Write the structure tokens for this entry.
Amino acid sequence: MKQFKLNGPVLALVLAAACLAACASPGRPEMMTITQPANVAAQGAPGYKAFKLGPVNGGGKTNAMWMSNVSGEDFQTALEGSLRAANYLADDPAQAKGEIKANMVSLDRPMAGLDLSVTTSVKYTVAYDGAPPVFDELVAAVGKAKFSEAFVAVERLRLANEASVRENITAFIDRLQSALAK
């Protein structure tokens, strides 16, 4: 029987492949977007296609050697797609009657674990032009990823991040609809 030996270059290649397999990847906007929200503004309802998306701040870039994160750009893309699906964004931003602003205050992630829970906190402000805010609240939501969903921890953390942002946007849309109905 022939024996296989790991020489320096082969060993380095194997170790590099193992490291790359465990590299953190950022949250994916398409996995954070609510494409079919439970609460959708109907034509004629308060807020129906009335807003433009203003500044969206917060979030951070993912360091591949550390842990998954959600960038501000990816959060903005997910929020915009979700608000559009819920009929809150005007087709033409110039025709909007108000503005929605968001600031991701925190993305609380665990350092380790089998089943991971991530909490996203976002401060949302919604106001019609020239009027006081109709919604000005911090929304926090938890997203989870189980060990059975991904064996590699960095992958599980990315899934939990995405679930947390998705849950946060869902909670915001639900609470916005209630605030606009008052």
The CA atoms of residues 39 and 174 lie 6 Å apart. The longest helix spans residues 153-181. Confidence is low (pLDDT under 50) at residues 10-21.
